[in-house]
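Cross-posting from the modeling subforum.

Setting up a comparison between two proteins and wanted a second pair of eyes on the formatting. Protein 1 (sequence, then structure tokens):
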Amino acid sequence: MSQKLQVAVAGAHGRMGTVARQALVEGGEYCCGLSHTAESPSRIFTTLDELWRCSPAVLLDLTTQPGSYEISLAAVKRGIPTVIGVSGWTDEQRAELDAMAKERGVGALIVPNFSVGAMLMMRFAQEAARFFGEAEIVEIHHPAKKDKPSGTSRETARRIEAASGSAPAIHSLRLTGSLAHQEVIFGGPGELLTIRHDSLSRESFVAGMMKAVHAVVRLRGLSIGLESI
């Protein structure tokens, strides 16, 4: 059985943060949280100094940019392994985080999507890109999602380009009634190949999230995606 960890959640009042807190509480691993609004019974604070005083073993960053960069870099500087479920990190920011994590001898893990199914969808798309010259991505999310296109679609596009040499177009839809859905459509002479993944509830992210939290303590430097663990 995995060792119990004390995990702090940044973005504790957000949709994903609330799901993460519940899962961590049920597993006896919730330490404290960071949010714009304090909540004493749940040990949710509004400043990093208050968070650090709880001595978390791992930080789970579920905020948004640009705050994610500042929060995660601050955690790594303190020698706290950090899992980041936030898109919008630039190559320069990733490089800085990697250098700091190596300097401090801790792990940092950026996960575009915590769903195991989404991880496999990206892997299958990268493999298919070796055999098809044309591809496009359609990603659909709930209207409250701030980034567009999604981090998952951008990572999928990056992998397809690496495999085929051609970057696919990304089409982003924000529709009420949806949560997180992505299709990768490949075209060839006389045929189409569609690889699709649907997250129907945020419960689909919990297993990958917990795996990431327990894996990051064994890492050094920056890793990307669930596949890396």
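Protein 2 (same layout):
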Amino acid sequence: MRQIWIPKAGEPEVLEVREAADPTPAKGEIRIRVAAAGINFADIMGRMGLYPDLPPMPVVVGYEVGGTVDAVGAGVDEAWIGKKVLGLCRFGGYSDVLCLPELQVHELPDGMTVEQGAALPVNYLTAYQLIEVMGGLKSHETVLIHSVGGGVGIAATQIAKRIGVRIIGTASAGKHERLLASGVDECIDYRTEDFEKRVLELTDGRGVELILDAVGGESFTKGFKSLAPTGRLGMFGLSSAATGKSRSVLALLKSVTAMPFFKFNPMTLMNENKAVFGVNVGHLWDEAEMVNQWMATLLDYYREGSINPHVDSSFSFEQASEAHRYIQDRQNYGKVLLKP
């Protein structure tokens, strides 16, 4: 098999392709010939040495794949063999062959490509947890989605649109026309506009009921002030700490020190009738049954036509460094994949 390894922390060029023997599925496992692997910002943070969950380097990252089952371990029905599937993994996804527990593998619905399968798990599970499980978004409310043109942003837009809410999104101006056509009601150019000021203008000073924020730092502070009474701030990342292509202690410290810890205390939350919560799907591996139910719901959403994973572009394994740069330069609209 072929895999993309991170041998040491650094810029995208540290990524390297290595070969090894194909793995054999153990009891209860399914082996997938991977056609596409999803890239997530956590992978990039890991490569930079900024992701605390990363196993010791050298390491193969990756949380999601799409492909075809070619073997099963003991106790698994051989009817799986030949099926097109998506799979969730705890690292190791940047591989062209992968063995996973049966519970973490799902057959693709009719009409879904393996590329869409690889684009669905992390983005849509994260968006679903933010909006429906913990955000409790209702049809009469308004949501602010940061980085709305990214993978999670597009997933969140589709799920929020299914509920019927008003959607405000932040993105660079070049993406606005496409976003408006896809269901975003109002776009804010985060490069030239103060999103806190614009949100209050767009809501007549009331604020929004739910914010999805993977930026962190000062964005959390401004977001908290942009919440309406009963508003919820959902945090799921810290991209403001990854301003360059390699680790910057200064950027990390600046991002952390800008967070409003003084605001997130019980008395303030009670007095302002606001809530703050965090989401990290990568920390739910001990809740496989629950996540499995969420995935089943999302696949039903696909079958009814409510969601449709959007792939921006695909890169070969040899182009992995280019793929990481492409995402860090904020060029993507939707999911970026690696293809063996």
